[in-house]
Protein backbone atom coordinates (compact mmCIF):
# COMPACT_ATOMS: atom_id res chain seq x y z
CA UNK A 1 0.00 0.00 0.00
CA UNK A 2 1.16 3.55 -0.65
CA UNK A 3 1.32 6.35 1.88
CA UNK A 4 -1.70 8.62 1.86
CA UNK A 5 -1.67 12.33 1.18
CA UNK A 6 -3.19 14.93 3.46
CA UNK A 7 -5.09 17.35 1.20
CA UNK A 8 -6.12 20.71 2.71
CA UNK A 9 -9.81 21.42 2.43
CA UNK A 10 -11.38 24.59 1.20
CA UNK A 11 -11.33 27.08 4.04
CA UNK A 12 -13.10 30.35 4.52
CA UNK A 13 -11.07 33.54 4.33
CA UNK A 14 -12.66 34.53 7.61
CA UNK A 15 -15.39 36.55 9.19
CA UNK A 16 -16.38 39.85 7.69
CA UNK A 17 -16.15 43.14 9.45
CA UNK A 18 -14.88 44.49 12.75
CA UNK A 19 -16.41 46.98 15.12
CA UNK A 20 -16.29 50.53 13.81
CA UNK A 21 -14.52 53.54 15.25
CA UNK A 22 -16.13 55.69 17.90
CA UNK A 23 -17.88 58.48 16.07
CA UNK A 24 -18.95 61.46 18.13
CA UNK A 25 -20.20 64.97 17.63
CA UNK A 26 -18.88 67.82 19.71
CA UNK A 27 -21.23 69.67 21.99
CA UNK A 28 -22.85 72.99 20.90
CA UNK A 29 -20.00 74.98 22.39
CA UNK A 30 -17.40 73.58 19.98
CA UNK A 31 -15.50 76.40 18.32
CA UNK A 32 -16.72 78.95 20.82
CA UNK A 33 -14.12 78.33 23.49
CA UNK A 34 -16.39 75.93 25.37
CA UNK A 35 -15.17 72.65 23.89
CA UNK A 36 -12.69 70.99 21.53
CA UNK A 37 -12.12 72.65 18.19
CA UNK A 38 -13.95 71.45 15.06
CA UNK A 39 -10.58 70.63 13.47
CA UNK A 40 -9.64 68.34 16.37
CA UNK A 41 -13.01 66.60 16.17
CA UNK A 42 -12.61 66.03 12.41
CA UNK A 43 -9.14 64.61 12.88
CA UNK A 44 -10.15 62.36 15.77
CA UNK A 45 -13.11 61.03 13.78
CA UNK A 46 -10.85 60.29 10.79
CA UNK A 47 -9.80 56.91 9.50
CA UNK A 48 -7.37 54.91 11.64
CA UNK A 49 -5.69 53.96 8.36
CA UNK A 50 -4.10 57.41 8.61
CA UNK A 51 -3.20 57.29 12.31
CA UNK A 52 -1.02 60.37 12.78
CA UNK A 53 -3.75 63.02 12.42
CA UNK A 54 -6.18 60.84 14.38
CA UNK A 55 -3.75 60.65 17.29
CA UNK A 56 -3.14 64.40 17.11
CA UNK A 57 -6.84 65.31 17.03
CA UNK A 58 -7.82 62.85 19.76
CA UNK A 59 -4.94 63.97 21.97
CA UNK A 60 -6.12 67.57 21.61
CA UNK A 61 -9.60 66.58 22.80
CA UNK A 62 -8.24 64.48 25.69
CA UNK A 63 -5.98 67.31 26.87
CA UNK A 64 -8.53 70.12 26.45
CA UNK A 65 -9.62 71.08 29.95
CA UNK A 66 -13.28 71.66 29.07
CA UNK A 67 -13.80 68.34 27.24
CA UNK A 68 -16.48 66.23 28.89
CA UNK A 69 -15.91 62.68 30.14
CA UNK A 70 -17.99 61.38 27.23
CA UNK A 71 -15.88 63.31 24.72
CA UNK A 72 -12.64 62.12 26.28
CA UNK A 73 -13.90 58.54 26.28
CA UNK A 74 -14.66 58.76 22.57
CA UNK A 75 -11.28 60.32 21.89
CA UNK A 76 -9.45 57.62 23.85
CA UNK A 77 -11.34 54.99 21.82
CA UNK A 78 -10.32 56.42 18.48
CA UNK A 79 -6.76 57.10 19.56
CA UNK A 80 -6.49 53.48 20.71
CA UNK A 81 -7.52 52.28 17.25
CA UNK A 82 -4.92 54.55 15.70
CA UNK A 83 -2.24 53.23 18.05
CA UNK A 84 -3.13 49.70 16.99
CA UNK A 85 -2.55 50.67 13.37
CA UNK A 86 0.96 51.67 14.45
CA UNK A 87 1.43 48.43 16.44
CA UNK A 88 1.66 50.40 19.67
CA UNK A 89 -0.32 47.79 21.57
CA UNK A 90 0.43 48.91 25.13
CA UNK A 91 -0.71 52.45 24.39
CA UNK A 92 -3.83 51.16 22.66
CA UNK A 93 -4.90 48.99 25.59
CA UNK A 94 -4.21 51.81 28.04
CA UNK A 95 -6.47 54.08 25.96
CA UNK A 96 -9.28 51.50 25.74
CA UNK A 97 -9.09 51.09 29.52
CA UNK A 98 -9.33 54.87 29.99
CA UNK A 99 -12.26 55.04 27.57
CA UNK A 100 -14.43 52.55 29.46
CA UNK A 101 -13.39 54.00 32.83
CA UNK A 102 -14.58 57.46 31.75
CA UNK A 103 -17.84 56.28 30.15
CA UNK A 104 -19.11 52.78 30.91
CA UNK A 105 -21.90 53.34 28.36
CA UNK A 106 -19.40 53.77 25.52
CA UNK A 107 -20.32 50.55 23.71
CA UNK A 108 -17.83 51.26 20.93
CA UNK A 109 -14.95 51.30 23.41
CA UNK A 110 -16.00 47.93 24.84
CA UNK A 111 -16.50 46.48 21.37
CA UNK A 112 -13.22 47.77 19.98
CA UNK A 113 -11.31 46.43 22.96
CA UNK A 114 -13.15 43.15 22.38
CA UNK A 115 -11.90 43.19 18.79
CA UNK A 116 -8.36 43.54 20.08
CA UNK A 117 -8.72 40.63 22.49
CA UNK A 118 -10.30 38.54 19.73
CA UNK A 119 -7.38 39.26 17.38
CA UNK A 120 -5.00 38.19 20.17
CA UNK A 121 -6.87 34.92 20.65
CA UNK A 122 -8.11 35.94 24.11
CA UNK A 123 -11.64 34.91 23.29
CA UNK A 124 -13.06 34.81 26.82
CA UNK A 125 -11.99 38.41 27.41
CA UNK A 126 -13.38 39.39 24.02
CA UNK A 127 -16.77 37.87 24.86
CA UNK A 128 -16.80 39.74 28.18
CA UNK A 129 -16.22 43.04 26.39
CA UNK A 130 -18.87 42.36 23.76
CA UNK A 131 -21.31 41.49 26.55
CA UNK A 132 -20.57 44.85 28.17
CA UNK A 133 -20.93 46.66 24.85
CA UNK A 134 -24.36 45.13 24.36
CA UNK A 135 -25.37 45.91 27.94
CA UNK A 136 -24.30 49.52 27.39
CA UNK A 137 -26.19 49.74 24.10
CA UNK A 138 -28.63 46.93 23.19
CA UNK A 139 -28.84 48.46 19.69
CA UNK A 140 -25.13 47.94 19.00
CA UNK A 141 -25.55 45.54 16.09
CA UNK A 142 -21.81 45.37 15.43
CA UNK A 143 -21.16 44.10 18.96
CA UNK A 144 -23.70 41.31 18.44
CA UNK A 145 -22.05 40.41 15.14
CA UNK A 146 -18.54 40.44 16.60
CA UNK A 147 -19.60 38.28 19.53
CA UNK A 148 -21.10 35.89 17.00
CA UNK A 149 -17.78 35.85 15.15
CA UNK A 150 -15.90 34.80 18.27
CA UNK A 151 -18.40 32.04 18.91
CA UNK A 152 -18.06 30.89 15.33
CA UNK A 153 -14.26 30.93 15.51
CA UNK A 154 -14.31 28.92 18.73
CA UNK A 155 -16.47 26.18 17.24
CA UNK A 156 -19.91 27.25 18.44
CA UNK A 157 -21.80 28.11 15.22
CA UNK A 158 -25.13 27.25 16.84
CA UNK A 159 -24.52 29.98 19.45
CA UNK A 160 -23.20 32.42 16.85
CA UNK A 161 -26.39 32.36 14.77
CA UNK A 162 -28.62 34.01 17.45
CA UNK A 163 -26.08 36.84 17.69
CA UNK A 164 -26.24 37.39 13.94
CA UNK A 165 -30.03 37.22 14.17
CA UNK A 166 -29.97 40.06 16.71
CA UNK A 167 -27.55 42.13 14.64
CA UNK A 168 -29.81 41.79 11.60
CA UNK A 169 -32.94 42.58 13.64
CA UNK A 170 -31.34 45.88 14.68
CA UNK A 171 -29.89 46.62 11.24
CA UNK A 172 -31.49 44.59 8.40
CA UNK A 173 -29.01 46.13 5.93
CA UNK A 174 -25.89 44.91 7.75
CA UNK A 175 -24.32 42.76 5.03
CA UNK A 176 -21.53 41.46 7.29
CA UNK A 177 -24.01 39.75 9.61
CA UNK A 178 -25.70 37.93 6.72
CA UNK A 179 -22.32 36.78 5.41
CA UNK A 180 -21.20 35.57 8.80
CA UNK A 181 -24.51 33.86 9.50
CA UNK A 182 -24.01 32.15 6.15
CA UNK A 183 -20.61 30.99 7.31
CA UNK A 184 -22.15 29.59 10.49
CA UNK A 185 -24.60 27.57 8.39
CA UNK A 186 -21.81 26.48 6.04
CA UNK A 187 -19.62 25.02 8.78
CA UNK A 188 -22.68 23.06 9.91
CA UNK A 189 -22.96 21.79 6.31
CA UNK A 190 -26.33 23.45 5.80
CA UNK A 191 -25.16 24.65 2.40
CA UNK A 192 -28.51 25.79 0.97
CA UNK A 193 -29.19 28.10 3.93
CA UNK A 194 -25.60 29.31 3.78
CA UNK A 195 -25.96 30.20 0.09
CA UNK A 196 -29.22 32.06 0.80
CA UNK A 197 -27.40 34.16 3.42
CA UNK A 198 -24.50 34.90 1.08
CA UNK A 199 -27.03 35.88 -1.60
CA UNK A 200 -28.53 38.44 0.77
CA UNK A 201 -25.11 39.80 1.72
CA UNK A 202 -24.18 40.21 -1.95
CA UNK A 203 -27.51 41.87 -2.74
CA UNK A 204 -26.81 44.43 -0.02
CA UNK A 205 -23.16 44.86 -1.06
CA UNK A 206 -22.45 43.74 -4.63
CA UNK A 207 -18.71 44.27 -4.09
CA UNK A 208 -18.51 42.01 -1.04
CA UNK A 209 -15.65 39.80 -2.22
CA UNK A 210 -15.56 37.58 0.89
CA UNK A 211 -19.25 36.78 0.47
CA UNK A 212 -18.64 35.65 -3.12
CA UNK A 213 -15.72 33.53 -1.97
CA UNK A 214 -17.62 31.87 0.85
CA UNK A 215 -20.62 31.24 -1.40
CA UNK A 216 -18.21 29.66 -3.85
CA UNK A 217 -16.90 27.39 -1.10
CA UNK A 218 -20.48 26.36 -0.31
CA UNK A 219 -21.15 25.51 -3.95
CA UNK A 220 -17.89 23.54 -4.12
CA UNK A 221 -18.82 21.57 -1.04
CA UNK A 222 -22.12 20.73 -2.73
CA UNK A 223 -20.17 19.52 -5.77
CA UNK A 224 -21.36 22.38 -8.01
CA UNK A 225 -17.92 23.38 -9.23
CA UNK A 226 -19.08 25.54 -12.14
CA UNK A 227 -21.00 27.88 -9.84
CA UNK A 228 -18.15 27.78 -7.33
CA UNK A 229 -15.66 28.86 -9.99
CA UNK A 230 -17.98 31.65 -11.14
CA UNK A 231 -18.11 32.99 -7.58
CA UNK A 232 -14.35 32.78 -7.16
CA UNK A 233 -14.02 34.65 -10.48
CA UNK A 234 -16.32 37.37 -9.13
CA UNK A 235 -14.36 37.67 -5.88
CA UNK A 236 -11.06 38.02 -7.74
CA UNK A 237 -12.51 40.58 -10.12
CA UNK A 238 -13.33 42.71 -7.08
CA UNK A 239 -10.02 42.07 -5.32
CA UNK A 240 -7.31 40.33 -7.38
CA UNK A 241 -4.95 40.33 -4.38
CA UNK A 242 -6.96 37.76 -2.40
CA UNK A 243 -4.48 34.91 -2.64
CA UNK A 244 -6.62 32.41 -0.77
CA UNK A 245 -9.35 32.75 -3.40
CA UNK A 246 -6.89 31.63 -6.08
CA UNK A 247 -6.28 28.49 -4.03
CA UNK A 248 -10.03 27.96 -3.65
CA UNK A 249 -10.54 28.30 -7.39
CA UNK A 250 -7.57 26.01 -8.02
CA UNK A 251 -9.09 23.38 -5.74
CA UNK A 252 -12.41 23.65 -7.59
CA UNK A 253 -10.59 23.29 -10.92
CA UNK A 254 -8.83 20.19 -9.56
CA UNK A 255 -12.14 18.66 -8.52
CA UNK A 256 -13.56 19.58 -11.91
CA UNK A 257 -10.71 17.83 -13.73
CA UNK A 258 -9.01 20.99 -15.02
CA UNK A 259 -5.49 20.38 -13.69
CA UNK A 260 -3.78 22.99 -15.88
CA UNK A 261 -6.17 25.71 -14.73
CA UNK A 262 -5.57 24.67 -11.13
CA UNK A 263 -1.81 24.92 -11.59
CA UNK A 264 -2.17 28.35 -13.21
CA UNK A 265 -4.15 29.58 -10.19
CA UNK A 266 -1.56 28.31 -7.72
CA UNK A 267 1.16 29.98 -9.78
CA UNK A 268 -0.73 33.27 -9.75
CA UNK A 269 -1.32 33.06 -6.00
CA UNK A 270 2.42 32.62 -5.45
CA UNK A 271 3.15 35.64 -7.66
CA UNK A 272 0.78 37.71 -5.55
CA UNK A 273 2.17 36.45 -2.23
CA UNK A 274 5.36 34.37 -2.46
CA UNK A 275 5.58 34.12 1.34
CA UNK A 276 2.34 32.18 1.96
CA UNK A 277 3.16 28.58 2.97
CA UNK A 278 -0.40 27.35 2.36
CA UNK A 279 -0.11 28.07 -1.36
CA UNK A 280 3.09 26.06 -1.68
CA UNK A 281 1.49 23.21 0.26
CA UNK A 282 -1.56 23.26 -2.03
CA UNK A 283 0.48 23.34 -5.24
CA UNK A 284 2.72 20.61 -3.83
CA UNK A 285 -0.36 18.48 -3.29
CA UNK A 286 -1.34 18.98 -6.92
CA UNK A 287 2.11 17.77 -8.01
CA UNK A 288 1.94 14.86 -5.57
CA UNK A 289 -1.42 13.74 -6.94
CA UNK A 290 0.16 13.79 -10.41
CA UNK A 291 3.14 11.79 -9.09
CA UNK A 292 5.49 14.69 -9.92
CA UNK A 293 7.40 13.93 -6.76
CA UNK A 294 10.43 16.21 -7.16
CA UNK A 295 8.20 19.20 -7.89
CA UNK A 296 6.03 18.31 -4.90
CA UNK A 297 9.04 18.11 -2.58
CA UNK A 298 10.33 21.44 -3.83
CA UNK A 299 7.00 23.09 -2.96
CA UNK A 300 6.87 21.44 0.45
CA UNK A 301 10.43 22.69 1.03
CA UNK A 302 9.20 26.22 0.25
CA UNK A 303 6.22 25.83 2.59
CA UNK A 304 8.52 24.71 5.40
CA UNK A 305 10.96 27.54 4.73
CA UNK A 306 8.06 29.97 5.14
CA UNK A 307 6.77 28.21 8.28
CA UNK A 308 9.11 25.91 10.16
CA UNK A 309 6.21 24.55 12.22
CA UNK A 310 3.92 23.62 9.32
CA UNK A 311 2.94 20.07 10.24
CA UNK A 312 0.95 19.41 7.07
CA UNK A 313 3.96 20.27 4.89
CA UNK A 314 6.20 17.84 6.78
CA UNK A 315 3.49 15.18 6.60
CA UNK A 316 3.00 15.47 2.84
CA UNK A 317 6.71 15.76 2.10
CA UNK A 318 7.05 12.50 3.99
CA UNK A 319 4.46 10.97 1.67
CA UNK A 320 6.44 12.19 -1.35
CA UNK A 321 9.67 10.68 -0.04
CA UNK A 322 7.85 7.41 0.73
CA UNK A 323 6.52 7.22 -2.81
CA UNK A 324 10.08 7.70 -4.06
CA UNK A 325 11.13 4.74 -1.91
CA UNK A 326 13.16 6.91 0.46
CA UNK A 327 11.46 5.57 3.57
CA UNK A 328 14.15 6.64 6.04
CA UNK A 329 13.80 10.26 4.89
CA UNK A 330 10.02 9.87 5.04
CA UNK A 331 10.23 8.76 8.69
CA UNK A 332 12.17 11.91 9.57
CA UNK A 333 9.38 14.05 8.14
CA UNK A 334 6.63 12.00 9.78
CA UNK A 335 8.46 12.32 13.12
CA UNK A 336 8.48 16.08 12.78
CA UNK A 337 4.82 16.21 11.72
CA UNK A 338 3.78 14.04 14.69
CA UNK A 339 5.71 16.29 17.07
CA UNK A 340 3.97 19.37 15.64
CA UNK A 341 0.45 17.98 15.27
CA UNK A 342 -0.15 14.34 16.19
CA UNK A 343 -3.84 14.64 15.28
CA UNK A 344 -3.20 15.07 11.56
CA UNK A 345 -4.84 12.18 9.69
CA UNK A 346 -2.82 9.16 8.51
CA UNK A 347 0.44 10.16 10.20
CA UNK A 348 0.83 6.97 12.24
CA UNK A 349 -0.44 4.88 9.33
CA UNK A 350 2.13 6.42 7.01
CA UNK A 351 5.03 6.20 9.44
CA UNK A 352 4.01 2.65 10.29
CA UNK A 353 4.11 1.71 6.61
CA UNK A 354 7.55 3.32 6.30
CA UNK A 355 8.77 1.27 9.25
CA UNK A 356 7.44 -1.89 7.57
CA UNK A 357 9.37 -0.99 4.41
CA UNK A 358 12.59 -0.48 6.40
CA UNK A 359 12.19 -3.67 8.43
CA UNK A 360 11.51 -1.93 11.77
CA UNK A 361 8.59 -4.17 12.59
CA UNK A 362 8.16 -3.47 16.31
CA UNK A 363 7.96 0.26 15.62
CA UNK A 364 5.64 -0.41 12.69
CA UNK A 365 3.25 -2.42 14.85
CA UNK A 366 3.20 0.30 17.54
CA UNK A 367 2.32 2.99 14.98
CA UNK A 368 -0.24 0.86 13.18
CA UNK A 369 -1.89 -0.01 16.50
CA UNK A 370 -2.47 3.74 16.96
CA UNK A 371 -3.75 4.16 13.41
CA UNK A 372 -6.22 1.28 13.84
CA UNK A 373 -7.34 2.52 17.27
CA UNK A 374 -8.23 5.84 15.72
CA UNK A 375 -9.93 4.22 12.69
CA UNK A 376 -10.88 0.55 13.17
CA UNK A 377 -12.07 0.38 9.54
CA UNK A 378 -8.62 1.27 8.19
CA UNK A 379 -8.02 -1.84 6.09
CA UNK A 380 -4.63 -0.65 4.82
CA UNK A 381 -3.19 -0.20 8.30
CA UNK A 382 -4.65 -3.51 9.41
CA UNK A 383 -3.06 -5.27 6.42
CA UNK A 384 0.30 -3.54 6.99
CA UNK A 385 0.25 -4.52 10.66
CA UNK A 386 -0.42 -8.07 9.55
CA UNK A 387 2.66 -7.97 7.32
CA UNK A 388 4.75 -6.57 10.18
CA UNK A 389 3.56 -9.30 12.52
CA UNK A 390 4.29 -12.00 9.95
CA UNK A 391 7.78 -10.65 9.36
CA UNK A 392 8.50 -10.42 13.08
CA UNK A 393 7.52 -14.05 13.68
CA UNK A 394 3.88 -13.72 14.76
CA UNK A 395 2.49 -15.69 11.83
CA UNK A 396 -0.87 -16.41 13.43
CA UNK A 397 -1.50 -12.80 14.44
CA UNK A 398 -0.31 -11.53 11.09
CA UNK A 399 -2.51 -13.90 9.11
CA UNK A 400 -5.50 -12.86 11.23
CA UNK A 401 -4.88 -9.17 10.52
CA UNK A 402 -4.48 -9.77 6.77
CA UNK A 403 -7.64 -11.89 6.62
CA UNK A 404 -9.64 -9.31 8.55
CA UNK A 405 -8.33 -6.50 6.33
CA UNK A 406 -9.47 -8.40 3.23
CA UNK A 407 -12.95 -8.83 4.59
CA UNK A 408 -13.09 -5.02 4.59
CA UNK A 409 -11.32 -4.48 1.26
CA UNK A 410 -10.77 -7.67 -0.80
CA UNK A 411 -8.00 -6.08 -2.90
CA UNK A 412 -5.99 -4.58 -0.06
CA UNK A 413 -2.28 -5.31 -0.40
CA UNK A 414 -2.56 -6.49 -4.00
Q: Which term fits the overall shape?
A: elongated
Order of helices and strands: HHHHHHHHHHHHHHHHHHHHHH
Uncertain regions spanning at least 5 consecutive residues: 6-14, 24-33
| Percent of residues in β-strands | under 5%
Rg from alpha-carbon coordinates: 27 Å
Please state the average pLDDT score.
91
**Major sheet, described briefly?**
none
Q: Report the total helices.
A: 22
- The amount of helix comes to over 70%
What's the count of strands? Answer: 0
What distance lies between the first and last C-alpha atoms, to the nearest angstrom? Answer: 8 Å
Q: Would you tell me the structural class of the helices and strands? A: mainly alpha
Spell out the blueprint of helices and strands.
Layout: H1 38-44, H2 51-63, H3 69-85, H4 89-102, H5 107-119, H6 123-136, H7 141-153, H8 157-170, H9 175-187, H10 191-204, H11 209-222, H12 225-238, H13 243-255, H14 259-272, H15 277-289, H16 293-306, H17 311-323, H18 327-340, H19 347-357, H20 361-374, H21 379-391, H22 395-408
Can you walk me through this structure?
The protein has 22 helices and no strands. It has helices spanning 38-44, 51-63, 69-85, 89-102, 107-119, 123-136, 141-153, 157-170, 175-187, 191-204, 209-222, 225-238, 243-255, 259-272, 277-289, 293-306, 311-323, 327-340, 347-357, 361-374, 379-391, 395-408. The termini are close together. By secondary structure, it is mostly helical. 71% of the residues lie in helices and 0% in strands. The chain is elongated and about 90 Å long.
Amino acid sequence: MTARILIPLLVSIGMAGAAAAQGFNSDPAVGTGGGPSPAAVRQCNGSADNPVPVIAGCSAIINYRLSTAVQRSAAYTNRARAYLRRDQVDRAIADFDQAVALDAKNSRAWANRGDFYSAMGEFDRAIEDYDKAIAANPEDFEAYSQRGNVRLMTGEPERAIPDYDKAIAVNPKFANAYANRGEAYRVQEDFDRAIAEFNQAIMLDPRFAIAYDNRGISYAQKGDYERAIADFDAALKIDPMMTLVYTHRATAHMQNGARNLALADFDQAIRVDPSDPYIYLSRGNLFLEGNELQSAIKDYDSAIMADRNYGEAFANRGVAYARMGNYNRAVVDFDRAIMLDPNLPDLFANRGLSYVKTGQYARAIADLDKAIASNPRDASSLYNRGVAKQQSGDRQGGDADVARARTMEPDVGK
